[in-house]
Design a protein that fits this description.
InterPro entries: DUF7695
Strand order of the largest sheet: 3-2-7
Strand content: 35-45%
Protein name: DUF7695 domain-containing protein
Helix content: under 10%
Pfam families: DUF7695 (PF24749)
Number of strands: 8
Length: about 60
């Protein structure tokens, strides 16, 4: 069984073009225009906003 480990939890807002990254559990961040947000650090991927409003930039490895 393969497990995925998050090594980067980040998105890019398609409106203001900010790249926002969550680096710790409960490290919630909004982009500067407040249309999208990211949370979860390396524990989970949580997104706020419409999927069409952001570009996924997260990376993970398989263990």
């Amino acid at each position: 069984m393969l497990n995925k480990k998050i090594v980067r939890n980040a998105i890019r807002c398609r409106h203001c073009l900010d790249v926002i990254e969550s680096t710790n559990l409960h490290d919630f961040k909004y982009c500067s225009c407040k249309k999208v947000g990211v949370d979860g650090g390396f524990d989970y991927l949580k997104r706020l906003g419409e999927p069409a409003d952001y570009e996924e930039m997260s990376d993970w490895t398989e263990e």
